[in-house]
Amino acid sequence: MTTVSIILPTYNEADNMKLIIPKISEVMNRRNLPFEIVIVDDDSPDGTAEVASGMATYFPVRVHLRKNERGLATAVMKGIELANGEILVIMDADMSHPVEMLPFMIEPIMEGICGATVGSRYTEGGGSENWPWIRRVISLGAGYLARGVTSLSDPTSGFMAIRKTLLEGVRLDPVGWKIVLEVVVKANPSLKEIPIYFADRIKGESKLSMNAQLDYLRHLWKLYHFRHRDWFKFLSFCLVGFSGMVIDTAILVLLVEILALDPRVAAVFAFMGAVTWNFKLNQNWTFTGIEFSRNIYWRYVSFFLICTIGLLIRIGMMHLIIRYTVMGRGKGYIFASIIGIFSATLFNFFGSRYVAFARKRFQS
Questions:
Q1: What is d(CA 157, CA 198) in angstroms, rounded to the nearest whole number?
Q2: pLDDT tens-place string over residues 139-181
Q3: In this model, does residue 205 exceed pLDDT 70?
Q4: From CA 38, how far away is CA 55, in angstroms rounded?
Q5: Cα(279)–Cα(300) distance, rounded to whole angstroms?
Q6: In whole angstroms, how far apart are CA 325 and each of 275, 294, 310, 322, 333?
Q7: Which of 1, 6, 4 is nearest to 40 (CA)?
Q8: Helix 332-351 and helix 296-324: axis angle, to 10°?
Q9: Which of 16, 55, 70 is closest to 206 using CA atoms?
């Protein structure tokens, strides 16, 4: 029969250990579900690890004490690493997640209905207890902000079950505490939402703070970048191109007004300066984190040639629109220029990504 590992990240939850461990055991044994409880404690000063270890005589509990690390998300990641079960359950240790819902979280995965389940307060049958309006607004707002990376009704839920094999090869890199959102976006498992009723903690203090909320925003930024990486790179590339236009103009004005160069000659130097600026910024920002397939000299030459071809594409598009279309007449040269710039930008971006800044291909 499938074994389940229930991962509880803890910090100052000694009192709750005495409540949640027996409760989990009661619920799992009632449904005859083999399980283990993996406690990952961040060296709680209230003796959480000691309390949990003392209960291992009566319950299937394993405790891992972290001395030099902090953070709920990284604690869960350590629990995933240590877990022996085929199905992993991630939940809070403060009794806010309904322990009695564990079988409903686990069984759809065991039956092959889905790869993961997530407890939701916002699907039919779910809810929360005694929440003030401001907390509801914050929770709903946080969920709305995540709509671009997940379709979950409750993306800030911390209650999840998932088949462990689905996490193999997935690089988890969460910021803050929303490990469930990280797993859903990065592993992209088939999902089933389970309605849960979220209760306020009975003992201990809430870990929700302003810093935690800022961490959530930083985490969302990373996940949007992960899920929509091509659009983010294109946006970054366009911002670099805009800064290059400023550099181009500055060099042009400097050479013409101060050094009295012919504008046509100055434009060549301005173009070269802007291309060099764009190359450096794209390498260090737009295409950062890539092991490139060619050395820096080849990258620069190819980027310069791509931008030169892009310039010719812009001029060519302008010529075609102005010469052969009604839209290019009169003030239509402005429209022609915009179309030319857009065409050249697309060419420059794809040329840069797949040629100048191409990723190194690893051969097995």
A1: 10
A2: 778 878 888 888 888 888 889 999 999 999 888 887 766 788 8
A3: no
A4: 12
A5: 7
A6: 31, 42, 22, 6, 11
A7: 6
A8: 150
A9: 16
Question: Backbone dihedral region of 125: left (phi > 0), alpha (psi from -120 to 50 degrees) or beta?
Answer: left
Angstrom distance (rounded) from CA 213 to CA 150: 18
pLDDT in tens, 25-50: 999 999 999 999 999 999 999 999 99
The stretch 185-189 carries a mean pLDDT of 91
pTM for this predicted structure: 0.71
E strand spans, 60-211: 61-65, 87-90, 116-120, 127-128, 160-163, 191-195, 197-198
Query: In the numeric block, which tokens belong to residue 77?
Result: 């990641």
Is the pLDDT score of 133 beyond 80? Answer: no
Which ranges of the chain does DSSP label H, i.e. alpha helix? 14-30, 48-54, 72-82, 102-110, 133-145, 179-187, 210-227, 229-253, 263-281, 296-324, 332-351
What is the rounded distance in angstroms from the CA atom of residue 32 to the CA atom of residue 292? 53
- Structural contact between residues 250 and 267, judged by C-beta atoms closer than 8 angstroms: no
Nearest to 356 by CA among 275, 263, 247: 275
Torsion (CA) 21, 49, 178, 237 in degrees, nearest 10: -150
Whether residue 1 has pLDDT greater than 60: no
DSSP structural state of residue 215: H
Distances (CA, A) of 257 to 260, 263, 277: 5, 9, 22
Rounded to 5°, the CA angle 126-185-170 comes to 125
